[in-house]
Amino acid sequence: MSAGEIRVAINSDHDIVLARQKGRLMATELGFSMGDATLIATAISELARNIVSYARKGQITLKMVNGLNRQGISVVATDDGPGIPDIRQALRDGFSTSGSLGLGLPGVRRLMDEFEITSQPGRGTIVAVKKWRQ
Amino acid sequence: MEVPILKQGAVLIATFQAALSDADLNQLRMGLVQQVVKFRSRAVIVDVTAMDVMDSFASRTLREIALMIRLRGAETVIVGIQPEVAFAMVQLGLTLEGVATALDLEEGLAYLNEKFKTTN
Questions:
Q1: Chain A residues close to B85, C-beta within 8 Å
Q2: What domains does chain B contain, in order, with CATH numbers?
Q3: Contacts with A8 (C-beta within 8 Å, 6 or more apart), sequence order
Q4: Does A61 touch chain B if contact means CB atoms closer than 8 Å?
Q5: What CATH number has the domain bearing residue A78?
Q6: Which domain holds residue A28?
Q7: Interval A36-67: pLDDT, tens
Q8: Across the interface, do B92 and A42 touch by the CB < 8 Å criterion?
Q9: Cβ-contact B79, B19 below 8 angstroms
Q10: What's the pTM value of the predicted model, to 2 decimals?
């Protein structure tokens, strides 16, 4: 584990709160504005919720990342759950409306600057997102 | 962390203290509806000023609370959504459609007073 990397095990709804609090703290320490820190914390909340809802357990890894002339935060949500059979559908708005439990993935994509998803049915899902400091 | 519910006349006021887990939110939903029944309250104000994040679950729970309370013939007002929380909610696609909102507790009470005045 490299310095400045935080891993939060996600096993219950309490861990959702813990993960987003740690994410907000790290974002603030990295100099993100309060607004951006809230966007990051909200994205973490949704990603952690997906883990609890669909895979039951997994983990969230928070890390500082360096880009060209910029710094950012990377959030990686990993689980060994059932996976997403149709990623395209999961990324479509309205597939998970705000009313349903939903995957919330299109929303997470809008909250962050970079978004990558890898999923294999029966093997699990990895969602990796980044936000760069303005 | 449990959400304290204050009774002020015909209005119940629930104040979110900090980050709430799903279990806390579910408990609040049941608690509020029970107390609306018990006290024959006409309105509920949910003050979310201290809330750090309003994700899909929190948003859905608030909407459910408002709908359940409406079925009891009472009114719900959500107050104190912080600007950055509101921004994140909109990005996420959460609109709390059909639920009354107000700037803060004071505005929420003013809104309800106005509403009761016209219905009396």
A1: 38, 42
A2: 5-119 (3.30.750.24)
A3: A15, A18, A19, A22, A48, A59, A60, A61, A62
A4: no
A5: 3.30.565.10
A6: 5-132
A7: 999 999 999 999 999 998 899 999 999 999 98
A8: yes
A9: no
A10: 0.90
